[in-house]
Amino acid sequence: MPVIIHEIFINAPIEVCFDLARDVDIHMKTTAKSKERAVAGVKSGLMENSDQVTWEAVHLGVKQKLTAKIIELERPYRFTDVMVKGVFHSFTHTHEFVVKENGTVMKDRFVYCSPLGLLGTIADKVFLEKYMKRFIVNRANELKKIAENN
């Protein structure tokens, strides 16, 4: 089961970073490359504990839907979302925020299990883990740009 961990320093207050990371509208802006859009559940604004959103996006050339639910939220320090329906066997994405001098460290911890057993494990090794890491890093970089330019 792959575990992707990424940290980034953002020159912005923790509350700003936390709210941007759970904002559906901002999520769509930061994932424009995969054409993500909210099609069910919370479609705009800030997500709260127990909220769900269904995303439609194009990943690896395939249009797909994925529903995620926030199962834990402690403002402004962390929130966790899990997949409740989608292409993965499962995933858990924990977003943590730590106050640092002149800003915030945003930490992503993404743990997932691919579908299809052995074929999924092979896909992880060949391309999927790298793809998911790049997706998380790109989104974090976009969040950083937005937070630092507000």
From TrEMBL:
Domain of life: Bacteria
Protein name in the entry: Polyketide cyclase / dehydrase and lipid transport
Lineage of the species this protein comes from: Bacteria, Bacillati, Bacillota, Bacilli, Bacillales
InterPro entries for the chain: START-like_dom_sf (IPR023393)
CDD domains, A to Z: SRPBCC_3
